[in-house]
Amino acid sequence: RAVWFVVTNLFTLFRLAWLPIAILIAADYALAYGIIQQSPGVTTEQTTETSSAYLWALFTELFLQGLALSVIAVAVHRIILFGDRRPGQYFAFPFGKTEVLYVLMGALTFAFILGPLFVFGFVATAPGGTAADLPMALLVAGGLIAYVVVIWISLRLMVWPPAVVANNRLSLGEALALSK
Q1: In sequence order, what E strands does the chain have?
Q2: For the residues 39-58, what does the mean pLDDT come to?
Q3: Closest of 109, 29, 36, 30 to residue 66, by C-alpha
């Protein structure tokens, strides 16, 4: 079904996605050019290790990716959920409330999924002790538990993206109820 959906909607998907992707690529090149101009004669490895501008460019890149991909994801969800193919629209870059909520939902999902892994990593390398001081079996068991928690959270949040598009609100409770 997924392959058939893509095949039958290939030109619609391209029509709704080309502009956000083109803008994202142009922004990527502009960021890279800015970093190169700021650090003439410095290798890429040295720039990534020492430049705070590189760190800001990285966060800017992640933010721009979130914006562009949310526009595309919301458009694809609207095709799937409502059949909204926006005929005759060739320059589509809508960014309204739904897209903002989608970006926020993505950031929260990222935090929910990586949170248990960060907690495990912090506990394993807590001040006053290092991971090397803990028995390997305890580290492996803790890592497996964190992995299972992350999989469980991921599965519970699977219906959150379409719920955000369908309801035009951050409906985490509804998504959790649906996935129960």
Answers
A1: none
A2: 70
A3: 109
